[in-house]
Amino acid sequence: MKTNRIFLVFMLLLSTALISSCRYDILVEPVVPPPNPSDTISFAKTIDPIFNDNSNCVACHNTGGQVPDLTTGHAFNSIMSLGLVNISDPVSSTIYWFPNPDNSENHTWKKYTGIQAQFVLQWIKQGALNN
Ligand code: HEC
């Protein structure tokens, strides 16, 4: 009887730990704040990961696959040589607008998040540098 009770208490503690660890996982999911307008956006550190992390874009846009080639090391040249950036009118840039969540006409299968789109736009406004 006593062992039973200890076992029950143990199971109760274990399940509490498991449940709270699950909740913890949900809470710590990365929340990316929008870009600060005064921050310089780095292509390598911020834009490239939008394309490559979790194969977000490179699942299709890879070397030998769908253009533009958005893989690390190729993305910048591919975007520029295809003319997907318009420095004089950043919001009209294809790399910003085509997969934009507010664009319901094109590229319906994959969109930036609203925040990713803001980072891409700010990068273009800052001159679309290979930085
Ligand atoms: C499921 C496959 C797939 C994924 C994932 C995908 N794309 Fe595309 N993308 C395509 C296809 C197919 C086209 C060409 C079709 C078209 O023009 O409508 C295209 C076209 C484009 C174009 C237009 C190119 C041009 O020359 O006009 C851009 C820009 C683009 N994608 C960016 C992205 C970005 C950025 C991501 C990640 C957020 C992404 N794509 C994810 C399949 C994909």
Keywords:
binds heme C, 5 helices, 131 residues, mainly alpha
3D structure, described in words:
The protein is mostly helical. The chain folds into two domains: 1-31; 43-125, no CATH class. Helix content is 45%, strand content 0%. The protein is built from five helices and no strands. It has helices at 2-27, 43-52, 75-81, 94-97, 114-125. Helix 2 packs antiparallel against helix 5 (114-125). The longest helix is centred in the N-terminal third of the chain and has 26 residues, at 2-27. The protein is elongated, with a radius of gyration of 22 Å. It starts with a helix and ends in a 6-residue tail after the last helix. The site of heme C has 20 residues, from helix 4.
Which value, in Å, is the CA radius of gyration?
Answer: 22 Å
Name the helicity range. Answer: 40-55%
How many separate helices?
Answer: 5
Element-by-element helix/strand order: HHHHH
Largest sheet, in brief, is: none
| Poorly predicted tracts of residues | none
